[in-house]
Amino acid sequence: MQDAPDVDKLTEEEAKAELAHLAKVLLKANLEYHAGDDQRLNDAEYDELKRRNTAIEARFAYLKRADSPSDVVGAVPSGRFGKVTHAQRMMSLGNAFDAGEIHDFDDRIRKYLGLGSDAPLAYTAEPKIDGLSLSLRYEAGTLVQAATRGDGAVGENVTANARMITDIPKNLDDAPEILEVRGEVYMSHAHFEALNVRQSEAGAKTFANPRNAAAGSLRQLDAEITRARPLAFFAYAWGEVSAPLANTQFGAVERLAALGFSTNPLTARCDGPADLLAHYADIEQRRASLGYDIDGVVYKVDDLDLQRRLGYRSTTPRWAIAHKFPAELAWTRLEAIDITVGRTGALSPVARLSPVTVGGVVVSNATLHNEDYIAGRGGDGGDIRDGKDIRVGDWVQVYRAGDVIPKIADVDLSKRPESAVSFEFPVICPECGSDAIREEGDAVRRCSGGMICPAQAMEKLKHFVSRGAFDIEGLGAKQVEMFYRDDLLPIHTPADIFTLQARDNENLSKLAKRDGWGATSAGNLFAAIEERRTVPLARLIFALGIRHVGEVAASDLARHFGSWQAFVDAVDAAGPAAARHLQADAAEAEERRIAAREGRRARIKPARDAVWDGTSEAARAAWDDLIGIDGIGATVAVSLVTAFQQRAERASIDRLIAELAVEDAAARDTRGSPVAGKTVVFTGTLEKMTRAEAKARAESLGAKVSGSVSARTDILIAGPGAGSKADKAAELGVQTMDEDAWLALIGGT
Ligand code: IVH
Q1: What's the angle, vertex CA 643, arms to CA 151 and CA 437, rounded to 5?
Q2: Are residues 319 and 393 in the same domain?
Q3: What residue's CA is closest to ligand 1, atom 15?
């Protein structure tokens, strides 16, 4: 390396040759690194070569190669691909499966916008491409970055590979200064089949379906491999743009086409649900002859101004929905029923099947839901499958809808073997021997072992390190199992992860000396753990794995409370009220029973109120606040309180918190918002928007929307007909304004 001539002295010929050489060497180094090959360049050598490559590119910019190593950001230190934080989150879509749900979708939007059922409301309808989404960033008309969706917030940098896709323009004429184009990368049926032929001839693994083939081809470290596997791209959406593309969804897609992107020819503008459903039927009928996989039709509100008003729930737009095609079916034999124990203790029956292809995917496991489902009973106690139970040895019908876990739809009794016996659902936990209890009204039987059940503890840990949670590089499900069983350096609870390095040091760095480990891999793991010691509040709440608290609820809670301490205090304060809530449910059920027996109407409110009498104001207020959060209901609230009140669980959480630095949740991006952190109340009639829209907009600006006026209220927005709330506000000296003044304040129309 010392012998290399000065970059300044290189001729164009020499520079070109050296860039080609460096691309090859650095690529090989990446591959060897990831194969764990010891012959690879050391990090310093690697960095030196990379610097030289950058220096040559700086001097001869026009010689920069499509597969330039400088586009493979951070490949060596931080894993396969560099990470990209999306300027705007990449959202997913809500699903619908039948016409009724499409009418509901239209109704919801009209209600939200305050549109009557006769007011015109246009949509677009277009195929839902079954590939993987990609975001392409253009600056001054040049493609500067391509990123996968990842978890929606952070994706992988696949720029070098995206440059190999002919459908993706490298330069645009007449584009906004900043333009992020989003769409789907997919592989056509013809290319998929040809690829599998080539793969099997070469003795390499074949792909189950075009989607996997597309994903595997895009996420190749060697961009040349991507080039050899023809991928295609349809543009259908956008992220950050410095100037709007159009006023309508349809117009924006037309603009993307004019800029040189492939857009789907079956994109149509539709007038309402009936029209959407007609277009759906048309697309479904053409499905088999399209030459690429689609798994439904996406409907979007056409007017971009209305899209903006409708906005987003946590991860999905209110203005769009995916109408999925019906599930694919196949028959096969049920070989066994296994019981797995999940992180909340649920005993879940899993069907082990004789492998069968369902819609292009080989299926050998399916969920059987719960014991009633196996027995042929539905959630309401009535029959399902005409009461037919499911037995080991039966012929069963398997179906898949979208990406979801396959399910069992039906049983063929004519093929039932003589020897088949009805399935006996276990009443003790197969993992720890504790009683497995089924509570009244619950379809699921649960292990009562809590933290002493190894399956629960291990599943909790796996959830804790999973992608939407702590996402610790090098600590996946497999490693968690290993550490859980380790005697010298065990991980039994989340806090143990963060004390791992200290304990290892006491052990004189035993980890580095073990089979399958070395100083580097142990060091990498400790570094990855350190990197996660600072954690955003929403991720932390989700990671705890509390029943009913998924990613959406976790981020709603984080946004509402802002800090860990505020969150914990609120849950603790709501504790006594949660108990009352459950007693009130029981009292209501009892009252209904008695009333039915006595042949009179049930007096529900008095029955519930009697239970609540004597609950402290503070507990009630905390409870109301908790269940008043958009998306959080009594079920989630009870579950939170229960988890925090369980002693072992609480101790485990407290020990974890002591190890972490929790980042407060920014109440969305509300910088510059005049109402961030304010508590506001709407009352009376709103004329410019519906209540739901007013609430969502206020919340998106960082305000808290409350249902009642108190000393903590900052602003009351009073429309015509405002009554007692306006009086109370006046009494308390709360600032009061009308709808127009409010809109002027938040800068809206
Ligand atoms: S729109 C904010 N349109 O489906 C809405 N998505 O299930 C952004 N997809 O992540 C998505 N075809 O990868 C949209 N015509 C289409 C689509 C489409 C396929 C994918 C996309 C998205 C996923 C959601």
Answers
A1: 105
A2: no
A3: 128
